[in-house]
Amino acid sequence: MSRVARADAASVSSATFAPLESPTFRAIWLAAQLSGLGWLFQTVAVSWLMATISTSDVMVALVQTSTTLPVFILSIFAGAIADNFSRRHVMAIGWCVIALSSIMLTAVVALGFYNPWMILAFSCLAGCGAAFTDPAWHASVGDILRKREVPAAVTLISVGYNAMRSIGPALGGVVVASFGPLAAFAAATLTYLAMLWAIGLYKWSGRASPLPREPLSTAIHDGARFTALSGEIKAAIARGFLFGLTSISILALLPLVARDQLGGGPIAYGVLMAGFGAGALCAGISNNALRRSLSQERLTTLACIACAACCLALAFTPSLVVAAIALTLGGAGWVVTWTGLDVSVQLSSPRWVVGRTLSIYSALSSGGVAVGSWIWGVVAENHSLTLALEASAGALLLVAATGLLLPIRQWKEADQDSLGFETPALALDLKSRSGPIVVKIEYSIPEANVETFLDQMQERRRVQSRAGARHWNLQRDLQEPLHWTETFRTPTWMDYLRLNHRLTAEDRELDRSLLELHAGELPPRTRLAIERPTGAPRRREQSGSFFFRR
């Protein structure tokens, strides 16, 4: 790893436990650990209950699908809502849904009125709540803490959850074996109520926008456009989908490993899950040290190889101890990969869109997990458990090689906060819906600077387009070759204002670079105009054009 890469890694690394100095983050984080413990209690109880009342391997594997498929379907809507409304309120609603599903599941089990499809339905409802809580919570990290603390905070979230994973499944197995699934469901419900209490007690808010709230459809479209134009985010999403698709075999088939291959019961299953969680915990605690020693791409590749080794060990070992040790390796690879990809998306996203980029990443990653759970369950049922684990190991090795095509760039600290924008004085009385607006920025570029100018305008096109510019193009005057014009459109005047409010300090650096290439005595001139179709009725806001100097 180069000195530059190490410096970049150090610039975004704070002490692992530094974010806990924030009372709000500490309270929500602690409540998240308690509710995470309850979630694991419920997962163990549901998985084992399904394994005992159904003889279908696919039904057992679909327990994972039932909680992840709703995340795939709903996350993009949840991300748009989290960016337009209070993220704290979105979290509260999501946890209410999770608590409701747990209460209903507890009730039907207590009454003895349940079947495999009913269990999957309540798991699906819990997954719907998780679809809203996860993007809002991860996006809130940047609202509660300083940007340089985000990697440590994301690591802490993974460390905390996997600390619970190291003890939760074992405790859950003991509870299920000693008192039955009903007790596990009731305990989980209490932990969810504790999370709601913490959210109600501690308050935080995002940075308020001076502009009106976006319509949901527009917010979703803008988030999808930004994601499509960000190479770093697309790479993280693709790797997350492939990793989820291939590595979920470890967790989806683990009840079958415990029941069929090891001949154990719920306690054995809990021990295996504890091994997985212990590995995840150790990797999470040492994550900062690992990042300083290796690039994130190298860590992700090694993590995929570790998970492949875990699958192969589970496929052949008849020993509970060996299986638990192998799962520590898989747990370590699991948390290193997901933490790295999560932080990569966060650090590549401005605050105005971070909820949506995280939700798209979460949706496609969860989609990979949901599809993978079904695929490996089908392979195990129609062929054998051993073949399913062997095939997933081979697939994980192929995913490790995708780093050659979709590398994860080294993290670096950049100012992604949106800057203020002074609305230009207009000669016309425009309304927010007036448009389309045509923007023309005129440059004077000497011949010696043309090549550099074109390179920077390529980046300029990406920056402007992902912030909302449409039909961007660059023109050169045939009679005055020094004269260049950058042109783009926005559908309405409000869209033009949103575009400028979305540009970050890092984006504005590009303006300064272009200014250095500009040869005119005055800075580049920006002209604003509103289109008027020929033959359209006259309207005051569509009767002219205007410009201002920037």
Automatic annotation (TrEMBL):
Domain Major facilitator superfamily (MFS) profile per the UniProt entry, residue ranges: 24-410
Signal peptide: none
Primary localisation category: membrane
Pfam families: MFS_3
Region feature (Disordered): 531-550
Compartment(s): Cell membrane
Protein topology in the membrane: Multi-pass membrane protein
Transmembrane segments annotated in the record for this chain: 27-49, 61-82, 89-111, 179-202, 236-255, 267-287, 299-316, 322-341, 353-379, 385-406
InterPro entries (UniProt xref): MFS_dom, MFS_trans_sf, TM_effector
Keyword terms, alphabetized: Cell membrane, Membrane, Transmembrane, Transmembrane helix, Transport
SUPFAM superfamilies cross-referenced by the UniProt entry: MFS general substrate transporter
Organism superkingdom: Bacteria
Family annotation (PROSITE patterns): MFS
PANTHER family listed in its UniProt record: INTEGRAL MEMBRANE EFFLUX PROTEIN-RELATED (PTHR23513), STAPHYLOFERRIN A TRANSPORTER (PTHR23513:SF11)
Listed name of the protein: MFS transporter
